[in-house]
Amino acid sequence: MNSLLTAIEKLWLNTKLVIGFSFGLVVAAAIGISGLSSLATMEAEMERLYEMDLLGISHIQEANINLVYMGRAMRQAMIAQDDAARDKAVAQVATARQTLRNELAEGRKRLFRAEAIARHDQFQRNFNKFNENVEHALAMMAREKTNPSAAAKFVSSAEFIETVNSADDDLTALTEIKKRGSHDQLLAMKKQTQATRQLALLLLIGGIIAAAGFGVLIGRSIKRPNERLRNSVEGLAAGEVAAPIPHTDYPNEIGIMARAIQVLQGIYRKAEDTRWIKSHSAEIGAELQQTEDFKTLAQTAISRLATVLKAGHGAVYVASGDGRLTLLASYGYRERKHLSNSFAIGEGLVGQCAMEKVAITLTAPQDYLQINSGLGEAPPACIAVLPVIHDGRVLAVLEIASFQQFTERDTLLLDTLTPALAISMEIMDRNQRTRDLLVATQEQAERMEKQAAQLEEQTVEMEAQQAELLETENWFRSIIETAPDGMLVINET
Fold first, then answer.
1. Minimal CA–CA distance to 248: which of 236, 232, 235?
2. Which of 48, 258, 302, 371 is the most exposed place for a label (fewest CB within 10 A)?
3. Phi, psi of 348 (to 5 degrees)
4. Is residue 48 exposed (0-12), middle (13-18) or buried (19+ Cβ within 10 Å)?
């Protein structure tokens, strides 16, 4: 039933309506054809009844009447007073006999029942015997002429009367057989008419029920897909952009509307994906701007990305001055003894990604670390390794592993956030260099202040020493000027 309903759903609306109307017309045509067939059968039966029975009865009755005419003409010939009356009566006998034979021949053509044929054969024998008696009586009258007493006696004899009565009884019985057959035929036709009426009624009721059922089926084939499309449109309006649109494979109006809704869904999905990407990009970007060091920046980036993408594993490898990429932050990562946390350019997927400066995506990777939790662990379905580039320089490499394939929306989010992360890292690096330069400047200023203080102290000491020297010099001058003779200074004391 469902397969039939699905097949009807795929038809064009015009085709459904044509099929529905055609079904009703077929039912009406079936009723009409059945009625016409029954009418044709009844008409044929009526013609057969008229041709075989009614006309047969008429011919047999005419034969019976002419048999009576023969008997009456024989009696008139017996009582005729002259030859003219006798000859006329004899002619009437001949005419009645010939008419009887003609009518009986026509009646014989319309005898088809075994009983009637047997009765006809019996009448033929009795009539032949009666006809022989008539010929014998006429011969006797011809010989006797004016004294037909012997012929009259013969005609009045029991033998002659018995043959007449037997023939008459045969024709009467034959008429009754035909009447009984006609009555039976009428009863059969009545039964057939009743059966035809019942058949027409059954066809009408069955046709109405079938037409109603087929109409309900067509109605459901129109209503069900429309309701599904309406639910899809309502879901789309409510923001369910990922739900599949039904009936897009239908080659009719439903399929056209479904494909149009699917196009609209694609537009909504792109708009929703754009809104989702912008929303998370702005949110994560704002969080990245609030970080104060590389460690916090990297940890915030990988944690938020892994949460949004529903990833089970993530890591950030930062480029160092020696050209290696070192693990700085991770999400859901457990260190393994046989796994390195530092990669050279071109080493492993991380180093290869840094060297080629393009993203690398692997589906169902083999021999990859397990994503684990307290309840167990399992290999990822997909991993993505992305370079963080600014001005052609690789600042870091992101590695994310997930149990599910990354969608186009996830990829676009990563493509949007890696430049933002690169800018944040560049700004963080410049800020760090600025802070380092400021610290160095402050240290140099402090050293210069200390040196200035030392120079000032040295200047004061030198001024004091100069004053002391000047005083000593003045003292020596005063001594020299007051001494009458010369002085010899041996040492400081």
1. 232
2. 48
3. 65, -175
4. middle
- Per the CB < 8 A criterion, the answer to whether 390 and 425 are in contact is yes
Euclidean distance between CA atoms 192 and 41, whole angstroms: 9
* Cross-strand pairs, 327: 317
Q: Give dist(CA 301, CA 325) in Å, integer.
A: 17
Q: How far apart are CA 100 and CA 59, in angstroms?
A: 9
Residue 154: both structure tokens together: 């013969």
Report the distance separating Cα 398 and Cα 415, nearest Å.
11
Closest to 319 (Cα-Cα) out of 395, 415, 420, 243: 395
109 vs 62, 103, 168, CA distance in Å? Answer: 15, 10, 20
Q: What is the separation of C-alpha 155 from the centre of its chain, rounded to a whole number of angstroms? A: 98
In DSSP notation, 77-112 reads HHH-SSHHHHHHHHHHHHHHHHHHHHHHHHHHHT--
DSSP per-residue string spanning 21-49 = HHHHHHHHHHHHHHHHHHHHHHHHHHHHI
Rounded CA gap, 153 and 378, in Å?
Answer: 136
The answer to whether 435 touches 293, Cβ cutoff 8 Å, is no
Give the model's confidence band at 390: pLDDT under 50 very low, under 70 low, under 90 confident, else very high. Answer: confident
Distance from C-alpha of 114 to C-alpha of 362, rounded to nearest angstrom:
99
Q: Cβ atoms within 10 A of the Cβ of 147, count?
A: 10
pLDDT confidence bin for 1, thresholds 50/70/90: low
Q: Per the structure block, which two tokens stand in for 286?
A: 């704002």
Over residues 465-481, the pLDDT tens digits come to 888 888 877 777 776 66
| pLDDT digits 0-9 by tens, 246-284 | 888 888 888 888 888 888 878 878 888 888 888 888 888
Return phi, psi of residue 370, to 5°.
-85, 140
